[in-house]
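Pipeline run #58 for the internal structure catalog. This entry was flagged by the ingest filter as a single-chain record with no existing model, so it goes straight to prediction. Upstream metadata was stripped on purpose; only the residue string is passed forward. Reviewer on rotation: M.T. Logging verbosity set to normal.
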Amino acid sequence: MDFLLSEEQKKLRDLTREIAQRYVLPKRSYYDETEEFPWDLVKVFAEAGLFKCLIPKEYGGEGGRITDICIVTEELSKVCAGIALSFAGTGLGAYPILLFGNENQKQKYLSDLASGQKLAAFALTEPNAGSDASAVQTTAKRQKDEYVLNGTKQWITNGGEAQTYTVIAVTDKRKGSRGASAFIVEKDFSGFSSGKKEKKMGIRASTTRELFFEDCKVPNENLLGKEGMGFLVAMKTFDVTRPVVAAQAVGIAQGALEEATKFARERIQFEKPIISFQTIQHKLADMATWVEAARALVYNVALGIDRGKVKGSKHSAMAKVFASDVAMKVSHDAVGIFGGYGYLRDYPVEKMERDAKITQIYEGTNQIQRNIIALNLVKEIARGIK
């Protein structure tokens, strides 16, 4: 993919790769076992300036380009997808502010995210509002100079660790999805708290928690956009952030491919390295082809978004669904190449398969992504677009 990247982006990739190998790799097993949040590595990322690529220069960053975010996410996820989420989850929480925030909101919140002094999170999902994002029940009632939020959010990445949250809540139940609004909520706002850390199959270094709003008071100036724009804020955010999930999936797949290839060269059976057997060669060839195809799609979409050529949800959904399916397939096949060793925690492909599964689920399940793709195809046919 070098021909698609600028020299600056290549340097960003090389820097992130070095950080992942030097700092993340030695801690990968530790954080997977303990399920602690990797604050020491967040500090490393911040000192290296990685968070700056999330935010435009006018707000203390160095970019704000989706391609840059994909580069960092892929390289970190190649080593540990869970640790990578401290970065990528902050991008998800920041983008609603980037897309819909007014100048005062951007000045107030984005510089701390760019420096890595604070992390962000995005809070849409609820116990009864997963794939059906329009079923949000958390309410926000306006009372003079503030909104009062009540409700529960579930499965929030960076939940309890982040200091800045974008929260979707209903301001007018009569309007359905058009009655939802988006708010910036700070961790120390009165009435806001987080629940226990969820015990997960994968991405264990990433914290996932419930969020509770009990008469949580949010200033009027923390409304993002206008009342009734909450669902639009969420969907437009996903349109630009789903390629980042796809990049995470590509990173997992690339990491699994590299581990499987290395193992196949070293594992001796019948007095030969198993990579000499055509069955293994063909398996690795297919894995490598799928990874390259996924990467090409992901970065094509990301560059299209950055250049204003891709504005709809269809291509972001395509990138997410294809790359995440590839991550599951490649990581699963990597475990197969390792054989019994692949089933042991002593070897990283076991973790990679566990981590890969979530990329098919969050930011919209792959079934929902296929619905989005098909709906856009129908709309394009109706408009006479071939």
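catalog note: The first strand starts at residue 120 and ends at 123.
catalog note: The mean pLDDT is 96.
status: ready for reviewer M.T.
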